[in-house]
Each structure stands twice: as C-alpha cells, then as structure tokens.
Amino acid sequence: MHKISFKNDYSEGAHPLILQQLLRTNLEQQAGYGNDSYSQRAKELLQEKIAMPAAGIHFTAGGTQANLLVIGHLLKPYEAVISARTGHIAVHETGAIEATGHKVVLVDAVLGKLTVQAVKEVLDTHTDEHMVKPAMVYISNATELGSVYTKAELTELSVFCRERKLQLFMDGARLGSALTSRFNDLTFSDLAKLVDVFYIGGTKNGALLGEAIVFAKQGLDEGFRYYLKQKGALLAKGRLLGVQFLTLFEHDLYLELAHHANAMAEKIAAAFEEKGYAFFLPPQSNQLFPLLPNAMIEKLQERFDFYVWHKPDQHTSAIRLVTSWATEEENVDAFIRCIHS
Amino acid sequence: MHKISFKNDYSEGAHPLILQQLLRTNLEQQAGYGNDSYSQRAKELLQEKIAMPAAGIHFTAGGTQANLLVIGHLLKPYEAVISARTGHIAVHETGAIEATGHKVVLVDAVLGKLTVQAVKEVLDTHTDEHMVKPAMVYISNATELGSVYTKAELTELSVFCRERKLQLFMDGARLGSALTSRFNDLTFSDLAKLVDVFYIGGTKNGALLGEAIVFAKQGLDEGFRYYLKQKGALLAKGRLLGVQFLTLFEHDLYLELAHHANAMAEKIAAAFEEKGYAFFLPPQSNQLFPLLPNAMIEKLQERFDFYVWHKPDQHTSAIRLVTSWATEEENVDAFIRCIHS
Amino acid sequence: MHKISFKNDYSEGAHPLILQQLLRTNLEQQAGYGNDSYSQRAKELLQEKIAMPAAGIHFTAGGTQANLLVIGHLLKPYEAVISARTGHIAVHETGAIEATGHKVVLVDAVLGKLTVQAVKEVLDTHTDEHMVKPAMVYISNATELGSVYTKAELTELSVFCRERKLQLFMDGARLGSALTSRFNDLTFSDLAKLVDVFYIGGTKNGALLGEAIVFAKQGLDEGFRYYLKQKGALLAKGRLLGVQFLTLFEHDLYLELAHHANAMAEKIAAAFEEKGYAFFLPPQSNQLFPLLPNAMIEKLQERFDFYVWHKPDQHTSAIRLVTSWATEEENVDAFIRCIHS
Amino acid sequence: MHKISFKNDYSEGAHPLILQQLLRTNLEQQAGYGNDSYSQRAKELLQEKIAMPAAGIHFTAGGTQANLLVIGHLLKPYEAVISARTGHIAVHETGAIEATGHKVVLVDAVLGKLTVQAVKEVLDTHTDEHMVKPAMVYISNATELGSVYTKAELTELSVFCRERKLQLFMDGARLGSALTSRFNDLTFSDLAKLVDVFYIGGTKNGALLGEAIVFAKQGLDEGFRYYLKQKGALLAKGRLLGVQFLTLFEHDLYLELAHHANAMAEKIAAAFEEKGYAFFLPPQSNQLFPLLPNAMIEKLQERFDFYVWHKPDQHTSAIRLVTSWATEEENVDAFIRCIHS
Nearest to residue C235, comparing CAs of C203, C216, C215, C209? Predict the structure, then answer.
C-alpha cells in the first residue's frame, strides 16, 4: 500500500482552480517574459492587497531562486546577510547565497526567530574592512521550525534594521501558513510596511510553482528584470506564474488554502496533546514536531511517511509532520486514529 | 482587433495533452525535486530515444538556465566557451554565462553556424595563461538565424573538438524544429554520439516550460544536482517537468509538434517565393526572414505581429516570422492572403 | 651572450631611488594595510597633483588587479563594460573581468582608441533586459597599440559618457608614456576632470609593483577598501606601495622616467624612418611597431629580444619594440647601429 | 613619543638581506610573470626543502590572496571548505572565499585547532544535494590563536581526510613560527606528505610581501597559472617574489627569523609567568594572550601598542602581543621592565 505522506507541503500538484485557469487561458497569445496581461493583473492585485501601489513585484519559480535573486540584487559584493543558524539559506540551499559571492553570517535564534540582540552582536563585531559588512537581515515566516513572528517582534526588528541601515528580507515560502496561524497578528500590508522585501510563496501553498517577490520600497527593484534574466529566472511563458497568482489572490484562495493546512496541523496537534505527548518545538503553523516514543513512530511509519527530525534520547524522537492545502481530512483522521490505537 | 502574432514560439501555453496529463496526475503524492516517478520514466524514455542508457538527464525550467548550468558546470574558472557572434548566449542572455565567471569568445559564423576553421583560429591565438583557455564549443540547432546543422557539418565539428579536447555543447531550444527540417539528416541518437551535452527544448515546442539537458557521456553530470540546487534550478515539484517530457515523448508528440511548426513556416515561405520575394536568410526551420518592401510590411502589420529584423536599404526590410506547434493553419492562410492581396 | 630585451617595460626591477627609500624606511614600524604614513602622504601628493583634494586614491599591486577591482566595484551584476577589441581587459587578462561576473562588450576601435560612434552603436543595440546593460567605457592611455588620446578625443568621449550615464574608466598602465608623448596635450588634472576613474601605472614606469587607482568623483570609492580586502588586494605591508608612489611623485620622477622611455623610442623610430622603413602602427609612445624585411628581423634577433607582432606578407613582419625608464641609451645606439649596418 | 608596537608581525619592511638582494639584482633584465631565473631557483630550492621534486610551487602576494586562490582553484562550484570558527578565512578576509562562490562551513575547534571529530560531524550532516558538499579542510599553522599542530594531530587529520576524500589545506601565514615552536615536531617534508596543499608565509616572516603556495600532489596545480592571472595575482615583476624566497631559503634565514620571533615571545611569556599572570590561551608561538589587570594594561599602553583581545570580567582583559623577526630584544626588555615595575 502506498503510504500517506506528511513529509512536506509540495507533494501534490496545484490547486484544481489553478489548472482550470491555465486550461482556460491556454491558447491565448500573450507576450512573453512576464509582460502578459495575467502577470500584469496579478501584480496590480498584489499591490492592492499589500496597500503599496508602487511596490515592485516579480514572479519567480522557486524559493531558493527567490532568495538568491533578492540577496544578490540588493547586496554589494562585500556585503553580507545575517541569518538564523536554522535559516533556509544557511542550511538547505547548497550554498546558493555564497555562490552569488555573499557570506551568510549565522547567529543563534529563538525557535528559529531572529532577535535584535543577535543582530546587534554581529554589528558590534563587524567593524572594519577586514570583515564582511552586514547589510541585510534574512528571516523566514513561518520559520523553518514552524514558528511565526508576531507584529511586535517584527516591528522591533524593523525599527532596529532601519536605524542601522540594514535591509530586512522575509522569506515567505510558508507565508500563507504564517499569516493564518493562530499566533499571527500580521497582515500583508503590515509586512509591506515593516520589511523592505519579502516573497509570497506559491509552491508550498497551492501553485504548481512560483513565488511572488515584493520590493516594498519604490526603486529597490531597479534593474531587477536584468538580474532575473541573467540568472535564468525569467520564464519565457511568464503567464504560467501570472495566471497562478491571479487565481490565488482573486478570491483569497491563498489564505483559504493556508488556513486549511494549519487547521489540519492543529487537529493533529490536539490529538497529540490529548494523548499527553509533548512537542520538541511548539506547534504554530503547518509544521509539527511532536516528541514520540520510538515504538509509536514505528507504528505510524507503517502507514505514513514523515521525517524523523531529532533523537534526544534512546527511546524518544521528534518527528516532523507537514500538512498542506492538499492534506485530506480523512488522512488526518486516519493518522489520529493510529495515534490513539 | 487583437493581432495574430508570429513574433515567437512561446506565445501560447502548452499543448492540451500536457495539461490533461498534469490534471490527471495532479493530486497524486510524489517525491519532490525530480525524484518523482514521472521524471524517472521520462528520463528512461529519453535515454532510450537517444540510445544511450547511461546518459545523464536533468530537467530544467528554461533555455538561459540550461545554458548557464551546463557551461558553469563543465568549465573550470579560467576556461571559456566559443560561440558564434549570433549565438543566444552571446546576445540575448544578459551576460548569464559571464555571470558564472566565464568568457564567451565570439567568432564569425556562416548563417549562424560555427565552422571548424573559426574554432581553430581561436585555439591558434589562445596559447598561454594570459588569455582564457578555450574548452567548450557552443552551437545552437536550429540556430538563432533559422539554419540547421547537417550530419556532415556536425561530424566535422565533433571530430575536431574531440581531437582538441573541446567539449561540444548544443543548445536545443529549437531542437524539434531542427530535427524535423527538410534540411536535417540528424537523429536524436546521432546527437548523443556527436556532442558531449545538448538539451531538448520544451518551452518552444509545446511545454509550459522545460528543457531536458542530456549529458551524453557518462560521468559528465557528476555533482550536477548540487549545481542545479545551488543555482535555484531544482523545482520542488519536479513532476511538473517530468510529466511534460513524458507526454511529449511517449507518442512522438515532440517531433509532431515541431513538424507542424515547420510545415506552417514552409507554407508561408512558399507564398513569398511564389510572389517573387527573396529571403534575407534561407528558410530552413520555423523562423523565416523574408525581405519585403516596407509598404507590404505596413500592410501586414495591420493584422499581424512580428519583428522587423534588419533594414538593408530605405525601401526594404527583413522581417522575422516564427511559427510554432500552436500556429493555426487558418491564421497562416490569412497571412498568405494578405501577401497576395 | 645575453640578449638585450625590448620585449616589454617590466624586465628590470625598480628605479634605484625607490629601492633607496624602501631601505631608508625599512625598519620603521608602520600601520598595516595602507594606513601607514607613506601611503597617506602619497595619496595627498596625488590629490594635489590632479587638483582633486577629495579624490579617492587606492594603491594596488598590478594592472589586471586594478582593472578587475575598479570594474567589479562600480558595476551592478548585469551591467557591462565596453572595450576596444584590442583592450587589455579584452585580450590579455584571462577573463578577469568576466570572472567578476561582467561581460566585456567589444567594439572596433581606431588604432586602439575608442570612438563615440562605436560606443553609441552598442547603446543603440542594447535596449532591454535580454541583453546586458552597458554602464562603463574602458579605455587605455597609452593604448595597447602605442597610440595616445588627445584632449579633444577624450573630451568628446567624456561628454558623451556623461550624457548617457556611462562611467568612463582609463587604464593607465602606461599613463606616464601617454602623458609625455609628443602627441599628448592632456595633464593629470585634465584626466581627473574628464574620466570618472583611472589608474596611474607604476609597474611599467619605475616601480617594483603598484598602480594608483584614482576615483575622481567623491564617493565613488565608498566601500572600496572592503572590496580590496575581499579580492586579496590589500597588502599587509601597504607601505611598500606608498613609499614607491611617494618617491615617484615627490620630484616628478614619474614623468621623467616616462619621458626617458619615450625619448629612447623616438630615437629608434627616427632611425627606422631615416632608413625608409614604414610603421605598422604610427609611433606615439614607448611601443614601436616597425614593418621590417624578415632578413633584417633575423639580424636584429641575434642580439636583441622583441616580439614579432604581425606578418602582413611573406617577406615582411611588424615587430614590437618596447622601451622603458630603464632602457640604456647605449643599448638603443647598439640597436640603431644594427639597423644601419 | 612613538610607541613600540607589538600589534602584529608586519609592522616593519623586509629583512635587510632581502633588500640587498633586490638591489643587487635590480637592473638585470628578467622574464616576467614568474618566469625569471630567481623564481625558478627559489621553486627548486623549496622542492628540495620539502623533498618533493614534483611539487607545484607558485608565489603570490599575500595570505588572503593565497587562500582564495587555492580554495577557488580546487573546489567545484557547489563544494565547501570546513574551517575552525576562528579560522582566518572565516573571520578576517571580508568574505574572500564566499566571493569565489564557496561556503565556509564553520565548526568549533580546540584552541583554534580542528579535530577529526568536528570534521566528521559536518560530513554526517551534509548528505545530499540540498546542502553544500564538503570537499576541503582548512587549517592554519600556527593558528590564529597562536597554537601549533603536532605531528600526531596533523597525521590524524590527514588520514581521515584521505579516507573521506577531503583535501587538506594548511594556511601557513605563520608557518615559520609554527615550525620553530617548542611544541612543534613537524618538518617541511612532513607537511608535504601530510597535507595536499599549504603555503609558506613570507609577509609575516621577513619578506616585503609574498607567500609560497605548495601543491604537494603532482597535477593538483594544473591550470593554476591561468587562475593566478585571472584573479590579478600574477605579478609582472615576479622576480620580486622569487628573489625574496630565494634569500629566505638559501641559508635557512626563514627558520632563523621565525626562531627569533618565538624566542622574543618566550622571553615575554616567561616574564608574565614569573609575575604569576595567567594566559587566556597557552603560549606556543609568536602570539601571546596574557590575562592582565586593566591597570597593568593601561600602564603598558603608555609606551607600547597592542590589541586588547577579550574582556572576561570588569577587572581583567586578555591582550594580544605579537613578536616578529624584527622585534628588537631591547624593546622586549623594556616591555618586561614595565611588567615588573
């Protein structure tokens, strides 16, 4: 029997509405390279959604690509980006940022979230031309550990970064899940005010592929289309990205899908709590890290796929469960039954 | 009235069969990053098609990306690639190859096609460490000027390159159109024998996006997946590329689509010839470059979109017309009527 | 017998005064990385010499290094530099500029000198994000072919570049020879007004090593010391460069040395002219390209070393002779006697 | 009064013998770019010294340059180098390694020295193409904290690296001080057997500038001269480096100078120990890190220059004192008197 996977949030294709819209518009002739009418309308819709009519919006294929494009575009050769040690750019992008020539300065974080104090310490020790010049702060929301930033936390970082002339960049590969978390009090327009650049992840929230990079500050994306082209990131049929983001944002499908992912995660989390299991990391979005006896893990593995994340001792492990827009409730129920049995 | 476009071969979406297959497989859970069963089967199918069971095959999103990945992967830092002055990497990729650190050494070509003589002259003048070390030859088939390589021409280049330890790389963004040209006598398996690496263009021949890079020589792609990831080219939902190439190659759809594009171009070319118009560049594939009186061009522009390519004198211009898998014969007929009227 | 070399202008060590100053200051304790008092004074002296008290001046070890540092510092990733096809960065730097990620756009030049017309043609054909964005013009003075720019020529380029927002960069590896040419009407302070950045070559004019990069416009060198360090170009004992430039410019030694090199070249040129030999390229500075019968060349080669540059026909070749600050007049006389014999 | 500096080992110029040799050979005509007879003889001498007649030896201007050249030359784009968190490439080179595209993976070390265990942990966590591929281990000897590797420690690392196909690279900016340390039991020829590539630092041990990179394994430096040229590291007057290394190694001057530096450090260390002061890091070479009461530090600062390194508490600080080949014993004695007073 094929196992049900909770390994990640990109195991399925796209939300059916997206495929319908691709089909419907398929044979229209459109301009290439993102100059099509769908990409245009999608950008306007996003500018409206974030309440920044002059924001520079660019669609790109994936998260690693978005990260290297933004960072490579905004930094001078000797400038560096500060990241949590657990940040995606620090761990799981095969040195993509370094390959653009920039150092990623790593700092300890709290449940995956950067603090002003950690950033400040980097500034305090990087004071002359013998060291890289920290010029950007990279954060993820939701983080790689499933946590989400509150408005207070983000504001504190934002104020500090502006004071110290650091650009603040939010990786939003899982932004939908962050903004629909029970712990969230941020809106799209808050983001556009508090960070300099962020991206709205489509790949992990219902699109076939695609992230929408938002340069909130006017002018920050000057020349960015050249950079996109140079890095092989300007799709000939840019409509593919435009149609998808238009579909995701025309009727708030984006947040609905993310809400579903979180709801499925909460249902599982509640079941673990009910059974008295603790969490290695507190559940806040669509990633769960319960601490389970190894016997329970083996039982679950018979029918379900997921990563074993951490082994604190001989008898117990933390696993990672990821839900998505496509997670079917009946599979969640089957999983919960398996916990209870 | 919306004009009919002959500007390029990526104005429409995908061949409907591709979208059907995406829909059909959409909700299956599959492994990410190209490890899905569709990508796997597509690779095997291509290995079979080129009669190289050990070929290394990797799917990527677009042509510029494929070019920079292949060249950046295979060259040492101080090595350079030789290209026709009209080569896509030389002109229309915003310095993507230079951005990986490599010089593109430009040479004159014959109708867009490289000659052994031109390559030899580069080797003769690049003899020590004060100049880059030429290590690769880049050709396009079909070329940027619509011409195609014959088996004799490609064999001559191949023999020379192997003698001189140059890698031979064929950009196949329009490979379908080349292999179905009336002037072609090459097969997929000839390519795999004669060049070291090539790619099979999907974007311009029926796919939503996607190129299949083929490393014909075993081992040449060692570590290439690391490089794909580092350059932001490894799609989380790699199935998107796998499903498309599987569809294109399961029933020879790929060559059928290219054949249609060429047939439409030939029909237009025949009409020009019948009317006595000359060609700036001889028609060989799905790109046509007729020389027309400016008055005729203006008349055509009322209903059709295309690029004016070259202005040899005050009264005449060469235009570029591109047909594709999606070009409807009725639009071709309308265009021809306009020539005749 | 050891042959006398006219192969280049870096066959000897340093002018003896320089070595004396290095000896005299050798055991003083000085700050590192160019923060020593000699570098400081040398910078002030150069600022005075060019009549730009706010110019940013940085010493570096060699010409290729200076070129890649300046270009890499001033260009954004997708920006390109325009160079004569014969430019040093285009030919003899092993792709150093491309290795910083930037394309060198090549144009035809007149005796090695760039024209406004050639630059304009590049701008006219580079109009969107599918091509690199030309942002800098690179010229050499003296050029690689021994020619020098007049004030009128440089002014024309300068005006055009400012109109079109191109940075103008002059490679001055042989600036001394240019400024002391009979054909020159430019001064150091003219340069500082007409170009955005240039360097004053020491290696080929009396120093052990060293070029003084001059950013004429204030602020253009912001962050440049970080870039120097990152590229391995910030010498721990920066005094080595400071002492040398101080010595070269304290008593106009720099121009005296260059004047000597030119005088020696003129003497040889006059001898060729007297004997009725033509020049492949008109003699203007310390590089001569006489056209000689091959028999004469063979006779000269018995006692002298030089490059054979070009072979226009079976009987005649152009050779390259280079004189320097260190060329002894008795060797020049011996060479002339050999022509006459 | 000018203070006596113990800030670093590059405050003075060159050992007088070196300047004498530069003067003596100054006006000889020599081939450029390291093809001069002095560089040639220096290479042969070093090959003999390390008992590796086929070793590839290349001279370069400084330590950061040597590091980026070696690492950039030997790694594929997606490969990374492992370094102690305190390694020079990790801290004080302004991201020079990352600027060649490579990630530096940081690990904890013991007094600046890498352990097999730390390297092993990196390998255990870097297992697929979503992370960089560790391919080289970087160590410094002496380390940035003044410690030195024993033969046993280096052998253990070497055996492990060869087993796991990691290249082992030793930064020898302070190699002289390491090899003449009381704690050392390694010879030059041991190094050549145990590491794949290392460099012999000249800048910090008597040269004006210069490091000798040694590729111990034949073939490892294939193409390296192209890379040197491309990175602006091939000096036109390469004789400047050749003459210096010839002088340093003809009569064992290199080790004599380093021995002097260590002897001066030991004399100071003995004085601190006699007075009962502890060390923040154990003294092993020419860098000392005594822990002193702040009042003592202030007294010393009246006449001497040095860095305050660390402030463990309110009353005490660790300072860094560096001695060199040029440290005069009378200054050491003055310093010691100041401690005792």
Answer: C209
* Separation CA D99–CA C24 (nearest Å): 38
Q: B66 to chain A: nearest residue by CA?
A: A232
* DSSP helix/strand/coil, D256: helix
Which residues have CB under 8 Å from D274's CB, separation 6+? none
Q: How distant, in Å, are the alpha carbons of A102, A109, B215 from that of A139?
A: 16, 10, 38
* One domain for residues C240 and C264: no
What is the rounded distance in angstroms from the CA atom of residue C341 to the CA atom of residue B31? 83
Contact between chains at C226 and A73 (C-beta distance less than 8 A): no
Question: Among D217, D236, D253, where does a domain finish?
Answer: D253
Q: What is the pTM of this model?
A: 0.97
Looking at residue D95, its amino acid is G
Q: How far apart are CA A231 and CA A62, in angstroms?
A: 13
User: C214 with C269, same domain?
Assistant: no
Q: Any idea what the CATH number is for the domain that residue A81 is in?
A: 3.40.640.10
Q: Report chain A's terminal Cα–Cα distance, integer Å.
A: 20
CA distance A103 to A88: 14
- For residue A271, what is the domain's CATH number? 3.90.1150.10
Return phi, psi of residue D333, to 5°: -65, -40
Question: How much is the ipTM here?
Answer: 0.97
Q: Report yes or no: D328 at the B interface, CB cutoff 8 Å.
A: no
C205 min Cα distance to partner chain D (Å):
12
Give the closest residue to B172 by CA, choosing from B265, B99, B245, B80: B245
Q: Does B223 touch chain D (CB under 8 A)?
A: yes
Q: Which amino acid, C175?
A: L
To 10 degrees, the CA torsion angle through C159, C160, C163, C168?
-80
Report yes or no: B35 at the D interface, CB cutoff 8 Å. no
Amino acid identity at C3: K
Q: Which of A14, A99, A230 sits opposite B94 (nearest CB)?
A: A230
Rounded to whole angstroms, the Cα distance separating C248 from B294 reads 64
Please name the residue of chain C whose CA is at the shortest distance from the CA of residue B80: C95
- For residue A220, the SS3 value is coil
Task: Note whether A130 contacts D92, CB cutoff 8 Å.
Answer: yes
- Find residue B83's DSSP bridge partners: B106, B138
Domain residues for the domain of A83 are 16-251
Residue of B nearest to A30 (CA): B11
Q: Which residue of B has its CA nearest to A325?
A: B27
- Cα–Cα dist D204/D191, whole Å: 19
Of C78, C94, C129, the CB nearest to B132: C94
- Provide, as residue numbers in chain C, all residues whose Cβ is less than 8 Å from the Cβ of D64: 229, 232, 234
Q: pLDDT 10s per residue in chain A (341 long)?
A: 589 999 999 999 999 999 999 999 999 999 999 999 999 999 999 999 999 999 999 999 999 999 999 999 999 999 999 999 999 999 999 999 999 999 999 999 999 999 999 999 999 999 999 999 999 999 999 999 999 999 999 999 999 999 999 999 999 999 999 999 999 999 999 999 999 999 999 999 999 999 999 999 889 999 999 999 999 999 999 999 999 999 999 989 999 999 999 999 999 999 999 999 999 999 999 999 999 999 999 999 999 999 999 999 999 999 999 999 999 999 999 999 999 98
| A232 and A277 assigned to the same domain | no
Question: How many domains is chain D partitioned into structurally?
Answer: 2
What region does C276 belong to: left with phi over 0, alpha with psi -120 to 50, or beta? left
Boundary-marking domain end, from C208, C228, C253: C253
- D308 at interface of A, judged by CB pairs closer than 8 A: no
Q: Number of helices and strands (H, E) in chain C? A: 13, 13
- Kindly state whether residues D213 and D298 are assigned to the same domain: no
How far is it, in rounded angstroms, from Cα D169 to Cα D289? Answer: 26
Q: Within an 8 Å CB–CB cutoff, is residue C235 touching chain A?
A: no
